[in-house]
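thought: user wants a sequence for this fold. calling inverse folding tool.
action: design(structure=
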């Protein structure tokens, strides 16, 4: 039994590390190309600005592709099957440290410095699944900017193993549920 538990832990760690590595690769590629661009054009000019925009678009596309792959992996990992009729929830799912702690953790994980994006506060609705074991899957962010939403979803994956969720309950039994959180995030330049 101990060997099985250890194997499950190793696979879970490798799975979560593989998810984040897609974002890290995109970040690394962006930084490397940006450095080369700044070496080629040390002073700001129209061509450098045009190339910066192209690099930004490439990074956004790489993040979106990584999110699609992670979503596909998440769907395979879900073991709970939602019942045909949603049970009456008697206790909502909650983050162990509280909603404010979760929002702070998410806000700190979002890096939009390369976009020069500073709309404060940025209002979103974050929806995701919390299964009966407290695992979280398939985040979906609804906000005014698609690119920013993708980076918030990526931040969700970066922090998802940094805290636990208590599953929702129906008649004192843990059940799978969809959590919908309206949030306001603040971004500084």
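)
observation: tool returned 189 residues.
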């Amino acid at each position: 039994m101990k060997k099985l538990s250890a194997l499950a832990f190793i696979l879970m760690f490798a799975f979560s590390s593989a998810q984040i590595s897609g974002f890290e690769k995109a970040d690394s590629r962006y930084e490397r190309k940006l450095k080369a661009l700044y070496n080629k054009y040390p002073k700001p000019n129209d061509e450098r600005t045009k190339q910066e925009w192209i690099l930004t678009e490439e990074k956004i596309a790489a993040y979106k592709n990584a999110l699609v792959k992670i979503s596909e992996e998440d769907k395979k990992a879900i073991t709970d099957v939602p019942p045909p009729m949603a049970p009456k929830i008697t206790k909502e799912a909650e983050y162990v440290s509280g909603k404010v702690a979760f929002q702070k953790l998410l806000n700190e994980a979002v890096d939009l410095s390369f976009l020069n994006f500073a709309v404060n506060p940025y209002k979103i609705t974050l929806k995701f699944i919390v299964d009966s074991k407290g695992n979280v899957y398939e985040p979906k962010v609804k906000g005014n900017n698609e690119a920013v939403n993708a980076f918030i979803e990526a931040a969700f994956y970066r922090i998802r193993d940094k805290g636990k969720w208590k599953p929702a309950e129906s008649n004192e039994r843990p059940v799978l549920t969809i959590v919908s959180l309206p949030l306001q995030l603040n971004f500084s330049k």
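thought: summarizing for user.
answer: Here is the designed sequence. The helical segments are 2-40, 46-77, 99-109, 146-159.
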